[in-house]
Amino acid sequence: MTALVLGPHLRHVSAHTATIWVETDRPCEVRVTGDGIGDAASRTFTVHGHHYAIVEIDGLEAGARVPYEVALDGERAWPEDGTRFPPSRIRTLGGDGPLRVSFGSCRRSPDKANRHGHDALAAFAHSLAGTGDRAPGGAPADRGDPPEDAFEWPDVLLMVGDQVYADELSEEMRAFIRGRRDPDEPPADEVADYEEYTRLYELAWREDPAVRWLLSTVPTFTIFDDHDIRDDWNTSYTWRRQMWSQPWWRARITGGIGSYWIYQHLGNMSPADRAADPVYAAVREASEESGDGAKVLDEFAERADKEPASTRWSYAHDWGGTRLIVVDSRCSRLLTADRRGMLDDEEFQWLDGQCQGGMDHLLIASSLPYLLPRAIHHAESWNEAMAEGAWGKRSARLGESIRQAADLEHWAAFDASFREVAADVVAVARGERGPAPASVTFLSGDIHYSYLARVTEPSTTSTVSQVVCSPLRNPLVGRFRLANRVATARATGAPFRLLAKLSKVAPPPLRWRMTEGPWFDNAIATVELWDRDCRVRWQTPGTPTSLTEMGRATVC
């Protein structure tokens, strides 16, 4: 009997469409059934011997909550027999009430040693399964009967980086690698290719039944960060040259980008965008003609790495009065011997076009925080100037070494890009690109602690802020936590501001301050948008199956 390897995952949704993604253990027809769904089915396609399907569903009602089942070659495969979780539902947008976006980043996979604390994503799933979608007595809740806690059930789950760790392995992943190659051969203690990435995704999204259920019933959008590929991915031109000099790097980068395209990116796309995507068409065609689309995908992945402008990983979706812009701040970097930018020219032009007024709220998701604690911002801008020769050639080499060793590669370390985005945001927030939104909010992760920072200057009509939630499961410990706690103190910024000034770095075009946090525990955050109001709450897993509040704030 054909079986599900991964999924079903509920991915892109709109008011009337939904996308179901699955991986199966053999080629088959995948069919999704439920009241009002109609005839929704797709054949699998094959890449590197793995079989995938994307089932697109149209004609749904706005704000629908439709229980569904998945059949493989006519045999029901989901829900699984004996499950203790509620029915998986297709959840479209556009109903009455607020829009809730839950988000987080940096999640280490479940492991028997439990070295990284309670999993905020799993605890979130248990919380929803027990109270978020059920009325008293266990009957399914009606859309008009919202949970007692207004933050409880999200419309969207946004995972903003490090969904998998390709360079920090669990013992379960090491055991898998030992079964297929010498683990001491480069890359030692890291994944090597597409096949090992597939196991990494299985461990991340299948091993915990609560997380698997959550991904089947909450619409999920993603963007990658460095550990999805490798720590410090694309930190500099020097780093890229160092990596491509390694004989094992091609299989690693093509496996990482190719698997990201399959397991994450395809589900971020709307049905119309996916239908127009030439890579998707080519992979499916190659799968049908030769039995496997691996060659097409590998060539695409290598080109995407070597020619960033050839591929756009960023995307934007409008949900009622809210626009979500998800920015790729990793693969689309401009890194040459002469120029450097967080985004290449084409990517920035796209972002510039998306940053417009006329919405109630503008959300800009970037895996890397745009507004860091001030001390870290000044340290990174000073280091960039140092690495580019502000203090001489010898200091430039030292600056590059410091950059890689201390992970100084956020927006602040790409000063020109930081200023370009600031100009866009200020123009939107002042109403120069249409009516000003109530809020312009950056959503980010990466740094392994959570906070809210607010822009205080220049004055704008919109509230401009940065919300960070990290990690879902991978907390800082020991000296790393202490160092970052010190770095978030307001007084710490002065010496690094002086260093930046001595390096002739102009003052930042924005001023901001942290108003909530920092919190260093595993956490998940939920942003609630209602008319012109915006609120946020952070929750941390008090137990493996429950969440407690860590902080909350009114953004505007």
From TrEMBL:
InterPro entries: DUF7800, Metallo-depent_PP-like, PhoD-like_MPP, PhoD-like_sf. Coiled coil: none annotated. Transmembrane segments: none annotated. It holds the Pfam family PhoD. Gene3D superfamilies: PhoD-like phosphatase. Residues 1-90 form the DUF7800 domain. SUPFAM superfamilies: Metallo-dependent phosphatases. Residues 154-482 form the PhoD-like phosphatase metallophosphatase domain. PANTHER family: METALLOPHOSPHATASE BINDING DOMAIN PROTEIN, PHOD-LIKE PHOSPHATASE METALLOPHOSPHATASE DOMAIN-CONTAINING PROTEIN. This is Alkaline phosphatase D family protein. It comes from Actinomadura yumaensis.
